[in-house]
Backbone:
């Protein structure tokens, strides 16, 4: 299983924002330079993050972005949902009576993959931006 660059960059950019947003808003240009993420790509991501009320934009000469909540309140799962990342380890929906293999019953390993998906979702729900800041070394 692999997360898209969209979700990885969103988490990376918000961790940077949380770390460097001590007093003033942080510009996407600064995040782009520090994290090596395209400015155009960041603009697209931050539109989604703003729409989902994870960040707030500040206009003006000293404008940029700030978190809408404390880093201790922003779950990684919130970020992934905001950028439309879906973690799927099974090919069918959990509520489906039909299996991923197109048969009327679920495949023999279905419950195993579903359990893995639940663990992954719970992991992202438990982790917050603050956790990433505390375990990350910045230069």
Residues:
């Amino acid at each position: 299983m692999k997360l898209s660059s969209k979700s990885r960059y969103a988490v990376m950019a918000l961790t940077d924002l949380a770390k460097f947003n001590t007093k003033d808003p942080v510009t996407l240009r600064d995040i782009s330079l520090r994290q090596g993420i395209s400015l155009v790509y960041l603009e697209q991501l931050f539109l989604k993050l703003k729409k989902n009320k994870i960040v707030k934009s500040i206009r003006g000469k000293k404008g940029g972005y700030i978190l809408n909540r404390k880093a201790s309140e922003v779950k990684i799962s919130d970020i992934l949902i905001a950028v439309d990342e879906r973690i799927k380890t099974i090919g069918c929906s959990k509520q489906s009576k039909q299996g991923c293999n197109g048969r009327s019953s679920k495949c023999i390993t279905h419950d195993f993959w579903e359990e893995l998906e639940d663990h992954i979702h719970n992991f992202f729900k438990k982790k917050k931006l603050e956790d990433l800041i505390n375990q990350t070394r910045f230069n």
User: Anything to note?
Assistant: The longest helix spans residues 110-126. The CA atoms of residues 24 and 62 lie 7 Å apart. The radius of gyration is 18 Å. The mean pLDDT is 87.
